[in-house]
Every structure is written in structure tokens, then in C-alpha cells.
Design goal:
Layout (H helix, E strand, L loop, with lengths): L14 H11 L3 E6 L1 E14 L6 E14 H10 L3 E9 L2 H12 L7 E4 L6 E7 L2 E8 L7 H14 L5 E6 L7 H14 L2 E6 L12 E2 L3 H8 L14 H5 L3 H8 L3 E5 L5 E5 L5 E3 L9 E2 L1 H14 L4 H16 L3 E2 L4 H9 L20 E5 L2 E4 L13 H13 L4 E6 L6 H12 L3 E7 L1 H8 L8 H9 L6 E5 L5 H7 L3 E5 L10 H6 L3 E5 L7 H13 L5
Parallel strand pairs: 1-4, 1-8, 2-6, 4-5, 8-9, 9-10, 10-11, 14-15, 18-19, 18-21, 19-20, 21-22
Antiparallel strand pairs: 2-3, 6-7, 11-12, 12-13, 16-17
The chain binds adenosine-5'-triphosphate and 7-O-phosphono-D-glycero-beta-D-manno-heptopyranose.
The site of 7-O-phosphono-D-glycero-beta-D-manno-heptopyranose has 12 residues, from strand 2, strand 3 and helix 9.
């Protein structure tokens, strides 16, 4: 297995950061161009089966029409405080009128929609019984728009593009984003260089248009990379995050974007950016989320944040927080500025949800430079990563577990930190959400390695390891093995270097007994503290290096 070096950026944006961002995005002019859909919800109850066939009979008590697809993205931008120019094409039919009415009720103007006669507006009708979707019927024309509509749409884009603050493409592959429209977008972008975010089923089609960010979901990223989905019985790769993580550069290359925000539903997301370490966004996993369009919310919030110049990790956390608001809702949903504020007020940001303990690593602090421009600055002291007390450790892991975070634990001396350690710790972090490191105390190192060790005191080792973004928490232990810590942490994953085997690892049975998994990571050859010390001794013996 190829040994990748991963180093997540871990931000800790406070509620204040996200609130200020919410203020700053108000009234931005955002173009949303893409496939407008009318989402219909026929809601009712079912208490019997049909006589003709064993299918439920639903007594419909309510019907609702909601903007869907690109129209949902437009509504999300609006409800977060942006002004929207929504460009799409609909038919001259009842569904088209219902969609315009639904948009207007949500303060999104339909005056930029092209009406193509004879086209059937896209509509997706869900039949629900007691909040459960039983079936979805899809109607509407999915062929490319006709030439006249295409020209009208291009003209509209040409008129509006110069004055916008950012643009979103929401392309479900239903005929709005023709090659000519994409080419026009590319020309306009070359001229104006706006924040341009693309959410498209076929991202490869946007590779050369100067995209700022793309937002593929799991299926889209698999398609882009031409790789199969993760199988449940895969022994070496256990999560989507782990599967996608090595592909950051490839995704950026294939999409031509500067930023790729890959959303992985209940696993949150990974944000890749050229020249930066990947950033994770977290979510409270909702196993049976009935939301449609969390991705639309994510892309809307991400675009607004990038448009005011927020640093990418902050923009991503803002987007993840907005998505967290909608995943609690049923059906096609939006996140409003008020809901987001309330969510933040309750201390439930994407990073802090339920734990109250995050807030370590890169602070990504920012200040407002002009009403619309944010800039990253790092003048906050990172909160302590070191845990000095076992009760505090227990409280911490309990809250992480409650928030659905996957806890990875490893332990070691980390006496003179070297490249092998860094690579190994980054890899360990990638196996879950939170990495806790058990550090041998000075006495326990003396017992294990002799009286000349450690070279660096516990205090110094704590300080050095705290500087790594991948390490979330550190705790020292006096004993020869970290068994006591393992009993408290009950790690989901216990990690050691490949110089051990499961058989020679004394902690392995305990970890498995507690329901955790033991992972042995690839060993980086020729990197060890002992080797470094030997080398220094050799050189000193030759009289070199004084
Ligand atoms: N089941 C879930 N539990 C918790 N959070 C979720 C869940 N599904 C989605 N999310 C949140 O919403 C974000 C976007 O979700 P997802 O990856 O499903 O996008 P998508 O497939 O584009 O969505 P859609 O097509 O419904 O718009 C995720 O990164 C995550 O923050
Ligand atoms: O891609 P297919 O399934 O054909 O169409 C899109 C739908 O699944 C839904 O997508 C969600 O993101 C939302 O945009 C929602 O409004 C929309 O109806």
C-alpha cells in the first residue's frame, strides 16, 4: 500500500466567526444557473393495501410544491441573505407556473427564467405516507433546451455576469448547461474572474472554465475518478473519507478547480485546495436523514462565504453548519440566516456540536477588512491540547462519542520527532475524526529504553506534538503500556506502526474486547529516534558536528 502523508487542517471557528460571516454575506449578488425542478410532495397516510395489487393505498391529505434542483440552490442563497439572479429554462405549463409561484413565495424572482414553449418543466413528485417516501415520479423534458432558449439564456448570462459577486452552476444534466452555455460561462469568467462554484453531475465538462470550487458528492467523485464505491467488507479502507483522501490532487486536476469540497453525506466532507492540506468538515450523522438538497445548502453557503473572501476552511465550516441545519428537516429544505444564527447561538457549530471541546489547531481567525472582504489572520493562541486528568479525558471522549465522532488512539514516546512520526500520526488521524495520543512519561521511557532516554522531557514532547494539526489531544501515562488509557478512551481505532504485528501487540486483545479495531500502519523505513541518536553519536565519535 502506498504510504501517503496526510495532514488535515483543523479549524476552530467560533460562533462569532460564523456569525460575522453571516452578516458579511448579506445582499451579495449571486447568479445561480442550472436545472430548475419543481419538487412535489403528496402527503398522506396509508392504512390498507390496494385490492388490485399488494401496494399501499395512500389517502392524500396535503400537497406541497417546493423549488428543487438549481431552484433549491437559488432559494438557499436567498434565505441566507444573498440576492439571487436565477437563470434557467422551464416549460409554458402548469408545473412551470407552480414553480414560479413557489419561487416568488420565497423571494426569488422568476424574471430571468426562459420559458420554452413545448418544453415540459422538470417535476419530481414524491408520494409520502406518514413522512415516509413510498415512490417518486419524475416528469419533464430532460433534453437540451432548443436553440432560441439557449441564446436567450446566454444573453441573460452575458447581461448579469459582469455585475455579480459570485456564480453557482447547479447542473443535474437535464439540458440547461449545454456546451454553448458552458463555453459562454468560460469566456465570461476569463473576463471577470468571479468566485465560480460548480455543482455538476459531470464535473469533467467544467475543467477548463476557470472554476474556483467544485462540490462533488460521493457518487459524483467516484464517477470523476472512475473508481468503484467502497464495499462494506473492505478490510483496509473503512470509510469514504479514507477512500477519497488520497485523491485530492487528482480531483483538482480533473476538475481544474482551485478548491474541491467533496461532501460525503453522514461522514461530512473533505475540502481539498491547491497548495494546502485537506480540511475536514464534520457533521452529526443522521442515519435516516429525509432531507433532499443538503448539498444545495452546502454549495450556497460555501459560495457566499468564498465571495466575501473567507479563508477556505472557514467557508467550508460555514457551509457544513448550514447543511447541519437542513439535515434535521424533512424533504427539500433550506437554511435561513435566522435558523443558522439560532443554531450557532445554541453552540452547535459543525465543529463544536455537542462536544463543547473543539477549538484546537489552526485558529483560522479573521477580521473584517472592508464590508465584504475577510482575511485570515492567526493571532489566537490555540487552546491546550494536553489533558492532565483522567476525568477530563473521560468527559471529553464521552462527548465526542455522543456527537458521533470516531476516536483514534495511539501511543508512544515521540522523543525526537521525525518524518516517520509525522506521517504516521497524519495517517492515524485520517482513520477517524479525533486523534488522541498517549505519551509515555519520562520515567516510563527510562524503564523502557534506558537511563539516557528520553532526550526531550515530557513537557517539551507535549509542546512539539501539540504543534501538529493532526493531533487533537495528548495525555501522558506512567505505566509500561497504555491499557488504562485504552479502557477510558475505548477507541474506535487503535493504531500502531507496522513494526508490530497484532500478535506482538499486547494491547490488541483489550482494544478488540472493547469493540475497537486494531490498525497497523505502514512503517516508514530508516526513520527512528534511536537511529537519529546513533547517527549523532557516530558523528560525535568522528569529531564532526560539535
Ligand atoms: N445523513 C446525514 N447526516 C448528517 N449530515 C449529513 C447527512 N447527509 C448530508 N449531511 C451534511 O450535508 C452535506 C452535504 O451532503 P451530501 O454529501 O449528501 O450532498 P449531496 O449528495 O450533494 O446532497 P443533495 O443531492 O441531497 O443535495 C454533508 O457534507 C454533511 O455536512
Ligand atoms: O438527480 P435526480 O435524482 O434525478 O434529481 C435531483 C433530485 O434527486 C433532488 O436533488 C436534490 O439535491 C434537491 O436539489 C432536490 O430538490 C431534487 O429534487
Amino acid at each position: 500500500m502506498k504510504h501517503h502523508v496526510f495532514n488535515f487542517q483543523h479549524s476552530a471557528f467560533s460562533t462569532a466567526h460564523l456569525n460575522s460571516l453571516l452578516d458579511a454575506v448579506t445582499n451579495l449578488n449571486i447568479i445561480v444557473i442550472g436545472d430548475a425542478i419543481l419538487d412535489c410532495y403528496l402527503e398522506g397516510f396509508s392504512d390498507r393495501l390496494c385490492r388490485e395489487a399488494p401496494v399501499p393505498v395512500v389517502t392524500v391529505t396535503n400537497s406541497e410544491y417546493v423549488p428543487g434542483g438549481a431552484a433549491n440552490t437559488a432559494v438557499n442563497v436567498r434565505s441566507l441573505g444573498g440576492k439571487v439572479t436565477f437563470i434557467s429554462a422551464i416549460g409554458d405549463d402548469g408545473e412551470g407556473s407552480l414553480l414560479c409561484q413557489a419561487l416568488s413565495r420565497r423571494s426569488v424572482p422568476s424574471k430571468h427564467l426562459i420559458v420554452q414553449s413545448g418544453r415540459q418543466t422538470l417535476a419530481k413528485q414524491r408520494v409520502m405516507a406518514s413522512s415516509q417516501i413510498l415512490v417518486r415520479f419524475d416528469f419533464g423534458t430532460t433534453d437540451a433546451i432548443d436553440e432560441d432558449s439557449e441564446q436567450a439564456l446566454i444573453d441573460e448570462l452575458e447581461r448579469r455576469y459582469p455585475e455579480c459577486d459570485a456564480a453557482i452552476v447547479s447542473d443535474y444534466g437535464y439540458g440547461i448547461l449545454t456546451q454553448r452555455v458552458i463555453d459562454k460561462l468560460s469566456q465570461l469568467q476569463a473576463r471577470h474572474n468571479h468566485v465560480l462554484v460548480v455543482d455538476a453531475k459531470n464535473l469533467a465538462a467544467y475543467r477548463h472554465i476557470g472554476t474556483t470550487a467544485v462540490k462533488p458528492n460521493y457518487e459524483q467523485v467516484l464517477k470523476l475518478l472512475n473508481i468503484p464505491p467502497l464495499k462494506a467488507d473492505n478490510q483496509s479502507v473503512k470509510s469514504r473519507v479514507e477512500q477519497i483522501l488520497p485523491y485530492g490532487d487528482r480531483i483538482l486536476e480533473l476538475t481544474g478547480a482551485t478548491i474541491a469540497a467533496v461532501t460525503l453525506d453522514a461522514e461530512g466532507g473533505i475540502i481539498f485546495e491547491r497548495g494546502s492540506q485537506p480540511h475536514r468538515t464534520y457533521t452529526q450523522p443522521t442515519i435516516q436523514s429525509r432531507t433532499a438538497g443538503a448539498g444545495d445548502t452546502f454549495v450556497s453557503a460555501l459560495t457566499l462565504a468564498l465571495a466575501v473572501g473567507a479563508a477556505t476552511p472557514l467557508a467550508a465550516d460555514f457551509a457544513a453548519t448550514a447543511a447541519a441545519v437542513v439535515v434535521g428537516k424533512d424533504g427539500t429544505s433550506v437554511c435561513s440566516a435566522e435558523e443558522l444564527r439560532e443554531f450557532l447561538l445554541n453552540g452547535e457549530t459543525g465543529e463544536e456540536k455537542d462536544t463543547g471541546t473543539r477549538g484546537h489547531g489552526d485558529t483560522g481567525n479573521f477580521s473584517i477588512q472592508s464590508p465584504r472582504v475577510f482575511e485570515a489572520a492567526s493571532n489566537e493562541v490555540p487552546p491546550q491540547k494536553y489533558i492532565s486528568d483522567l476525568n477530563q479525558l473521560l468527559a471529553l471522549v464521552t462527548s465526542y462519542r455522543k456527537a458521533g465522532r470516531k476516536i483514534v488512539f495511539t501511543n508512544g514516546c515521540f522523543d525526537i520527532l521525525h518524518a516517520g512520526h509525522v506521517s504516521y500520526l497524519n495517517y492515524a488521524k485520517a482513520l477517524g475524526d479525533i486523534l488522541i495520543v498517549g505519551l509515555n512519561s519520562d520515567n516510563s521511557i527510562r524503564r523502557l529504553k534506558g537511563s539516557s532516554r528520553p532526550i526531550n522531557t515530557l513537557e517539551d514532547r507535549i509542546q512539539v506534538l501539540s504543534g501538529l494539526g493532526c493531533v487533537d489531544h495528548l495525555i501522558a501515562f506512567e505505566e509500561d503500556t497504555p491499557s488504562n488509557l485504552i479502557r477510558i478512551v475505548r477507541p474506535d481505532v487503535f493504531v500502531k506502526g507496522g513494526n508490530y504485528t497484532k500478535e506482538t501487540l499486547p494491547e490488541a486483545p483489550l482494544v478488540e474486547q472493547l469493540g475497537g479495531e486494531v490498525r497497523l500502519l505502514p512503517f516508514v523505513e530508516n526513520r527512528s529516534t534511536t537511529r537519529i541518536i546513533e547517527r549523532i553519536r557516530e558523528l560525535a565519535g568522528k569529531g564532526i558536528g560539535d
